[in-house]
Amino acid sequence: MNKDGPVPTSPMLYDPIPEGSIQTTKAMQFIAAAAVSLAAVSAGTALAWTSPVNEQLNVTTPISVDEDQKSWIGSFLAVGAFVGALPAGMLAERVGRRIATMAIGIPYLISWALLVFASGVGMLYAGRIFAGIATGASCVVAPMFISEIAETSLRGALGAFFQLFLTVGILFIYVVGAITDWVTLSACSAIFPILLIICVFFIPESPIYLVKQGSRQEAAQALKTFWGRQCDTQTALANIQAEIDAVSNDAKLSDLFTVRSNFMALLISLALMLFQQFSGINAVIFYAQSIFEAAGSTLPSAICTIIVGVVQVVMTVASAALIEKAGRRVLLLQSCVVMGLCLVMLGVYFQLKEAEFKNIDQISALPLASVVLFIISFSLGLGPIPWLIMGELFATEVKGVASALAVMFNWTLVFVITKTFGMMQDAWGSGPTFYFFAIFMVLGTVFTFVKVPETKGKTNAQIQAILAGKN
User: Fold this and answer.
1) What are the backbone dihedrals phi and psi of residue 47, each rounded to the nearest 5 degrees, phi first?
2) How far apart are CA 137 and CA 85, in angstroms?
3) Secondary structure of 259-304 in the HEC alphabet?
4) I need a labelling partner for 111 at 20 to 30 A (CA). Which of 41, 212, 243, 417 fits?
5) Backbone phi, then psi, for 356, in 5-degree steps?
6) Would you state the pLDDT for residue 450?
7) CA distance 398 to 401
8) DSSP code of 456?
9) What does the pLDDT average to over 203-221?
């Protein structure tokens, strides 16, 4: 990208159907969003794969893997995701959302094949990199596609599908990983990219993409498929065209740093991504089973992780409604405070355990309780809101490039945390490691209270005025 060249527009900006202006049906929108969200299920399986597998390596396989190599196996997912995010957006613009979404299934299948037939640690690394490429692509293309097939009244509900289906994929790994070996688990996980390719094949292209390509007749047909035969396609197409025409292509990358409102939006978005990852969430997901085993919980560690997975799914469903009722700031603040307290409790428990505290068995349920409460709080706040508020803070003309920067920053942080979590535990012990993450939750509480504006119910113009210091 030319440093000061035109910034590509974000397809997630468009709002093709004003609520109430057109008679529509909703069933096909849910079906299509579910089909596209199979990419999120696949991403969830890739993300959580290391949780049961780390304990099985060297036990159920002749491949020799030391602790440092295990940390690389976890971290290479983030490396691949960083690499895959931007090209996926470019591919979606060139060949369309539908083809790009189906194409995501290919690196997923390559990754699972490499893992199933791995004969050495190099193939494990390669498999995780391919899984990361597909995961990064999923994070860009699937939400884009879903946002372009939903009418206004469903944008919130369908927008939550990606995070919801991601947690379903994580739960799948926890359940199947508890009853089978890691090779079988990898083979079973390959069913989701296969289903993704098959299901998306039978849904139409995004109407917005078709209008941008000048294919108005195909766009009208896609609208009728998604929104029902009674949909007023002429009004819908006019709305789509008006939104496309209204987006400026004159913004420059430098505008992110020279325009106060843009800079504040970028600062807040990157800070929330920082606090999201330095809450230790991916370390908890990647190493959930190891945490419970190290804690000596009386419940089998596999059962503990399944409980965590179920909580994630349920609370992600609940978060969609609460975000609109409670507001962004309140949920972010509760998330930072509660997660910080849970991290402190985990730190205290592990310090007592390492000190061989004689009554440690009496509080053996503390790790599970802390992690479950941690996941609940994350699912209501720091999980979905940084992604949601990112879309609300940025002005239309810089949203595309700003969102790309935020995604790349997020995956960089995922790499750093998953690579260093094991090293921190070895160097400091489990207690101080959890205290380290708790410090970031304190900083997150202060930052959110001082800098993050409430965006609920506000227009983009009002938000820009707040960020510019005019309100």
Assistant:
1) -65, -45
2) 5
3) CHHHHHHHHHHHHHHHHHHCCCHHHHHHCHHHHHHHHCCCCCHHHH
4) 417
5) 60, 45
6) 95
7) 6
8) T
9) 89
Q: At residue 98, does pLDDT exceed 80?
A: yes
Q: If you compute the radius of gyration of the chain from its CA atoms, what whole number of angstroms results?
A: 22
Place of tokens 């979606």: 92
**Full DSSP string of 316-382:** HHHHHHHHHHH-HHHHHHHHHHHHHHHHHHHHHHHHHHHTT-TTGGGGTTHHHHHHHHHHHHHHHTT
The Cα-based distances of 460 to 310, 378, 467, 470 in angstroms read: 35, 26, 10, 14
- Residue with tokens 């995922």, as numbered in its chain: 414
CA dist., res. 100 & res. 93, Å (int): 9
pLDDT tens figures, 285-302: 666 666 777 666 667 777
Model confidence pLDDT, tens digit, residues 400-425: 677 778 888 988 998 888 778 878 88
The better pLDDT of the pair 21, 354 is held by: 354
Tokens of 209: 């993409």
Residue carrying structure tokens 């890739």: 46
CA 378 to chain centre: 12
- pLDDT of residue 32 exceeding 50, the answer is yes
H helices present in 117-232, as ranges: 121-149, 155-159, 161-179, 182-189, 191-201, 207-212, 216-227
> Is the CB of residue 58 less than 8 Å from the CB of residue 65?
yes
pLDDT in tens, 381-401: 898 888 878 767 877 567 667
Four-residue CA torsion sign, 112, 115, 116, 117:
positive
Amino acid letter, residue 49: W
Q: Distances from the Cα of 411 to the Cαs of 137, 141, 299, in angstroms?
A: 12, 16, 33
Burial class (CB in 10 A: 0-12, 13-18, 19+), 347: buried
